[in-house]
Amino acid sequence: MKKFLACTILFVCSLHGFSQAASVEASTYGIQTGFLGVWVHNESKLSNTIALRSEVGFDSGIWGGDYYDRTGFLVTPVLTLEPRLYYNLNKRVGKSRRIDGNSGNFISLKTSYHPDWFVISNYDNIRIISDISIVPTWGIRRNIGNHFTYEVGVGIGYQYTFAKQAGYLEDESDAAVNLQIRMGYRF
Length: 187
Hints:
Strand 2 (37-45) and strand 3 (50-63) form a beta hairpin. The relative contact order is 0.16. Helices cover 12% and strands 55% of the residues. The protein contains two helices and nine strands. It has an eight-stranded antiparallel β-barrel. It has one domain (27-186): Porin. By secondary structure, it is mainly beta.
């Protein structure tokens, strides 16, 4: 009877060890690039399923047409804070899929600010007008090997442009779209 009781206790304890809730990583750093930019990011754990992503990077733009001598491009800094809810971590663990590096599906509230600090462009005297956008986003993040990642996300939200600072009569607001396809490296 003692052996049976000891085996039962050992079995129950081992089940408890395997059934713990999946969790995002305490902190993860990386660099990502996409079609129009490059970004450095950190994700810090707020709870088992919520991480706060902070990001500094450069967004790019391209323009052209009959009214321009040549195709133009610009690169400008962007600061982003994005709380992310990774909602399928337990399901991924149950199917023996990876969750390291916060690999999973997420919903987020992406808040980005483009300051008018500087602009890199092939045209002279180009300025941007500062703006802030808040975009609810759905996305996925997956790992390729131990360090490489990819992310895909889509969302529609709100953008506020500080046009008065640039000499316009009124600030403006508009819809904002977040469509991201990024490849990255996780440190």
